[in-house]
Amino acid sequence: MRAAIVAHDFGAVFSLARDLAHISYSKIAAECDIKPERVGTLARGQGRITSFGKIATIADALRIPGHLLGLAPRSWEAATARGHVPTASARTSPTTREGSETVLRREFFRASAGAGLVLGLPELNQIKTGRRIDRDVPELLRQRTARLRRLDDVLGGGDTYRVYLGEYQATKAILREGSYTEETGRGLLSVLSEQAQQAGWAAFDAGKHADATSLYEASHQAATQAGDTALAGNALAFLAYQKINTDRTVGIEIAVESCATAGPDVPPGVRALLYGRLAWAYAAAGDADATERALDAAETALSEDDGTPQPDWAAWDGNGLQIMAGRCWTELRRPIRAVPVLEDFLSRYDDTHARDKSLYLSWLADSYLTAGEIEQSTAITNRVLELSAGVASIRPRQRLAPILHQLKAHKELPAVADVLKKARA
Residue 266 gets which letter from DSSP? Predict the structure, then answer.
């Protein structure tokens, strides 16, 4: 949200507001004095708002601090700093109830810009439990974990790690201090495993690799105790994904073990996800035949989907498999296979997912570089730099480092020189 505001990308601001705070486009339109259809068009990435007057109107309507938009401090900022939240205008708040709702929703934006997006999200109060833990608590925690997972769609691990770690630690406290039946205990352990994976992924994304490893190992232990083979297999897959960067042989062994641990009876989406990560391990090791076999196994698993609900953490479909295939063929230096797959997917992937899109684009830039298409690789690298600016993840820059190093050989080209200069800025 902060990156979108600073870039004056109000379409992304509106899209995030709808997806994460459930503020309708019609509500945004009314607050900002913009036609509803115009809000929708902007949210789809079409057009920009450049009028000073309209930018000031949006800042006041959505309580965006002036300095983030290059404006002088807004009149309401001093009052907010003193702890007074102005009431909504009569134009948009004809009743006390509506006024309260509008103020709360505006505060979402204030919190997003000033103190981190998560502080403004709804439904984040801790679930209240007594010493006796009811049997419905694991499911409530699982639903809450699924809601929080949506943050990873738009934020990097640097923003989400502490939130996810806090959830994991809170559930550990429930397990340690509460009283519950054996069945409820297994449910709590399963949720704990899921939360540990979520926190571990955020740690990995933020560059906290030791923390990530510890959390993945804790996740595997909790899933094993719970008898949850799907989560146990996924914990191993996460460990393999991390290990492949330092020891490819061990990484492959762990990835193979992850598929065996999950077994054939887990939901198809889980099997597809694990085989996809196995394919990546083989690709990183340069084994094209094994990579193709693993990708075929993932595709077969997806074809067996009979509509049975999949775990929220394994929401993998044909799109997930497509992007993994593109990444694998890039890693194997097969640009003729990689480029069409990546371009097709990325043409449909929204810029609001800035971290992931910048990562996926980096593989496309890599493939074009392998193919000797320097200008095209440079243009995509430039796009990666733009998208990843302000994203709280170390991975886009890590992915770009070897690409930028190779581009230095072509620094006599003006476009390459410009990208290299932007990367140093």
Answer: S
Question: Does the pLDDT of residue 119 top 60, yes or no?
Answer: no
- Among residues 362, 357, 358, 363, the alpha carbon closest in space to that of 330 is found at 363
Residue 401 to residue 412: CA distance in whole angstroms: 19
The pLDDT score that the predictor gives to residue 84 is 47
Check pLDDT > 90 for residue 116. no
Close Cβ partners of 374 (under 8 Å, ≥ 6 residues apart): 368, 407, 410, 413, 416
- Beta carbons of 251 and 240 less than 8 angstroms apart: yes
Backbone angles phi, psi at 179, to 5 degrees: -120, 130
CA distance 189 to 218: 10
**Cα–Cα distance for residue pair 388/174, rounded to 1 Å:** 38
Please tell me the distance from the alpha carbon of residue 129 to that of residue 335, in angstroms, as a whole number: 54
- Give per-residue pLDDT as tens, 122-158: 344 455 566 788 999 999 999 989 988 888 877 788 8
Smallest CA-to-CA distance from 121 within 28, 17, 14, 13 is with 17
Instruction: Classify residue 308 by burial, with Cβ atoms within 10 Å: 0-12, 13-18, 19+.
Output: exposed
Is residue 152 within 8 Å of residue 201, measured between CB atoms? yes
Which residues are CB-contacts of 261 (< 8 A; sequence separation ≥ 6)?
229, 232, 233, 236
First to last CA, the chain: 22
Tens of pLDDT, residue by residue over 220-253, are 999 999 999 999 999 999 999 999 989 999 999 9
What pLDDT digit, counting tens, does each position of 262-271 carry?
Answer: 999 999 999 9
CA distances from 145 to 152, 156, 255, 258 (A): 12, 17, 25, 23
